[in-house]
Amino acid sequence: MSLLAGKRALISGAASGIGRATARICTREGARVGVLDRDPAGARQTVEEIAAAGGEVIELTADLRDEAQVAGAVAQLREMWGGLDTVIGCAGVQLAGRDDRADRLSLEAWQETIDINLTGMFLLCKHGIGALLKAGAGGSVVLVCSPTGQYGCAPGYDAYSASKAGVYGLVRVLAADYAGEAIRVNGVIPGYTDSPMTAWVTPAEHEALLQTIPLRRAGRPEEVGEVIAFLASDRAAYTTGGVWAADGGMTAV
Ligand SMILES: NC(=O)c1ccc[n+]([C@@H]2O[C@H](COP(=O)([O-])OP(=O)(O)OC[C@H]3O[C@@H](n4cnc5c(N)ncnc54)[C@H](O)[C@@H]3O)[C@@H](O)[C@H]2O)c1
């Protein structure tokens, strides 16, 4: 039996990178997927790729900073599918060239990062978990974290690191909040992953980053998506409140 047969999943950030790979994997494993992203062209590409492979998928254009848009996207899925079983938060930004160490960091860059990476994740959970509760059959939530939320491993990315530390907090407290309603909440830590988010990395920085990774290579978005799909599934029934690394060993050393 497929990992996610019969499940209805909402995935943020599924127009690109890890979110898109996760959407592909979840539909391959039998789930219906709602692709939530602020980038309609990218979301359409995800939808077309998945539909061409026979998956069931719909596009939901929404900016996570806008609560009405997030609520509307969740309501649309509930109306179409009668409920929701899993919520996966992949959307995020890293403002290369604008993020900085604190004394040089503009309030605008700080606020934009926190608004998307942390408040946006909260709004996704607020409305997504609301739909799980209405369905009344438990469910699962998986939020994408980052090694930068755990360690000071990205000097000069103060807003990004702080926003991701907040996501760890959200994973743990939501796991405690909703365990009684059989909703599991886990985090996944990608390491250095080959996606549009890391396009700014220069060849010299790439080589230096590889030295921090025991497996000595960048991860592929699919390698993160496989872990997310497993945690979202009933086969991970006894996991909640954990953060699980798919990082080539980066956070182990
Ligand atoms: N790539 C890495 O090396 C890496 C490492 C650690 C953590 N992460 C995290 O993994 C997640 C996915 O990153 P990725 O590498 O796939 O990046 P990506 O840039 O390829 O994808 C991010 C997606 O989020 C969407 N998004 C951004 N802001 C949004 C908003 N306000 N509303 C709705 N959608 C929005 C973008 O449109 C995009 O489709 C992010 O949370 C990122 O912080 C990535």
- CATH architecture type: 3-Layer(aba) Sandwich
CATH topology: Rossmann fold
Strands across the major sheet, in which order? 3-2-1-4-5-6-7
Q: Categorize the overall geometry.
A: globular
Q: Give the biggest beta sheet.
A: 7 strands, parallel
Oligomer kind: single chain
Q: State the CATH superfamily name.
A: NAD(P)-binding Rossmann-like Domain
SSE sequence, one letter per element:
EHEHEHEHEHEHHE
Helix % is: 40-55%
Report the top-level CATH class: Alpha Beta
Rg from Cα:
17 Å
Strand content bin:
15-25%
* Tally of contiguous helical segments: 7
Index terms:
253 residues; 7-stranded parallel sheet; 43% helix; 7 strands; binds nicotinamide-adenine-dinucleotide; single chain; Rossmann fold; alpha/beta
Description:
This protein has 253 residues and is of the alpha/beta class. It has a single domain, classed as Rossmann fold (3-Layer(aba) Sandwich), CATH 3.40.50. Helices cover 43% and strands 15% of the residues. It has helices spanning 17-28, 40-52, 67-81, 107-135, 158-178, 203-210, 221-232, and strands at 8-12, 32-37, 57-61, 86-89, 139-144, 183-190, 243-246. A seven-stranded parallel sheet has the order 3-2-1-4-5-6-7, with helices on both faces. Helix 1 crosses helix 7, helix 3 (67-81) packs parallel to helix 4 (107-135) and helix 4 (107-135) runs parallel beside helix 5. The model has no long low-confidence stretch (mean pLDDT 98).
